[in-house]
Amino acid sequence: MAKQNVAEQFIDILVRAGVKRLYGVVGDSLNPVVDAIRRNSAIDWIHVRHEETAAFAAGAEAQITGGLAACAGSCGPGNLHLINGLYDAHRSMAPVLALASHIPSSEIGLGFFQETHPDQLFRECSHYSEMISSPQQMPRLLQTAIQHAIGQGGVSVVTLPGDIADEPAPDKAAVTALVTSRPTVRPGDTEIEQLAAMIDEADKVTLFCGSGTAGAHAEVMEFAEKIKSPVGHALRGKEWIQYDNPYDVGMSGLLGYGAAYEATHECDLLILLGTDFPYNAFLPDDVKIAQVDVRPERLGRRSKLDLAVWGDVKETLRCLTPKVSPKSNRRFLDKMLKKHSAALDGVVKAYTRKVDKHVPIHPEYVASVLDELADDDAVFTVDTGMCNVWAARYITPNGRRRIIGSFSHGSMANALPQAIGAQFTDRGRQVVSMSGDGGFSMLMGDFLTLVQYDLPVKVVLFNNSSLGMVELEMMVGGLPAYGTSNKNPDFAAVARACGAYGVRVEKPKELAGALKDAFRHKGPALIDVVTDPNALSIPPKISKEMVTGFALSASKIVLDGGVGRMAQMARSNLRNVPRP
């Protein structure tokens, strides 16, 4: 039996850690690793067209499965291309192992062709970034990297010179047990007792939820019912907390809607559950705040806290809910529910007025029809920019759907690469990329990856020929839009030229049929929808300075977007509100 080399041993360890595929672009320093994958039936090499796509795809796969995913880049420019997608994965707490191949070890530090120092370059977007300098070091170093990525939730980077990868592996490398899942974290008794006392003393409590409430929907609902609390959410909390939620008051922040802002500002006690919500301007500074988070470094970095609780949301509520006294007064909760319904009704009227006849097509209408037609377990990947707004306001979560985007890193061009990673986890599950024309065109080359692997991703392209969110930012600053227009091709024709299904939609009456046809198509498809560039959305709460900025930018019409079926949800919840 031939002796293993380091690359083969490296791949064997990844397989034992649950990695099923390695996304990347081949290159000379990576050749031993790619060849090791070729000869190992338990793992696949996924050839993408750009390494940034590889990192985004791995991050999405990790978010869908909860397990370790992996990507790779060859030396120098190859692995540098990974960095944007790795930042996104790290900020999303997605466990990703990145292999940064390196120049020959004997040339490091001598200004060799394509030389960089990846073990240093990736430190800011990883929990662990180290270089393998000998075959004997590799197994333990890779194990350590895997355990950092899984245990802390985020990225680990392993730098491996190509010549080391090709050397014989140690004869008796220890086969060590690997961490493949994370434990739950329970707060201390003191913090539980303190938080229970704060809740009992408060008349009006609001819960504001983020992605840390994943898997804790039932616990949050039980807790909200016991203390009669409205429940708002950040964008990353939407998919986990909005559905089957009779206490829902919407979303706060730049993309927000409903009464979440009022609920967080008019309460006596605000409890932040599993959220690292970055916009402190939308958080109150005159109410008591308690925060629960599994990452202690996040406690108190957005707002002044009266109590910091280190623990995951599910375990914390399991301990906390039995200790709080039930509240019977629903006045604050009912008031916020009514405000929420009224706020949604106001924007829905603007949305429904002849929108099905408007040309160019309103993007709100596109998102609403998409929400109605998509599968109940669909995965939506969402480009940064105005697509974030339409997804936040129109895609209805139900506990089975997933909504993934660059919500913490805010990168353009994320939706298509993330759709690739999501689709590889399950070819039979519907995956929809909500792409803007700016983001799609930035990494458009990887549409070819869909065709190469016959991935049935459906790209719904919101094509307004502009960078819509940037235009909005300019208006808020009182600046005329400049440098934001795109001269686009017929993207449907481009899709067909690539060998995929492509259709262009310019009239609202054509939309539903085009989406149905694309969804029925068994392979990759692109629906190029020409949308209104004037359909921009403003936050539910804006400052005097923002209003002034819009007045100075009066060359554009700003429409406040609707919120789709969420208005129906709010009205349904109001039927349960006792009348005086």
What's this entry about, in short?
This protein is of the alpha/beta class and 580 residues long.
Model description:
The radius of gyration is 25 Å and the shape is globular. By secondary structure, it is an alpha/beta fold. A seven-stranded mixed beta sheet has the order 10-9-8-7-11-12-13. Strands 2-1-3-4-6-5 form a six-stranded parallel beta sheet, sandwiched between helices. Helix 1 crosses helix 2 and helix 10 packs parallel to helix 13. It is built from 24 helices and 19 strands. Strand 5, helix 7 and strand 6 form a beta-alpha-beta unit. InterPro entries: DHS-like_NAD/FAD-binding_dom, POXB-like, THDP-binding, Thiamin_PyroP_enz_cen_dom, Thiamin_PyroP_enz_TPP-bd_dom, TPP_enzyme_TPP-bd, TPP_POXB-like, TPP_PYR_POXB-like. Keywords: Pyruvate, Thiamine pyrophosphate. This is Pyruvate dehydrogenase. Belongs to the TPP enzyme family. It comes from Streptomyces ortus.
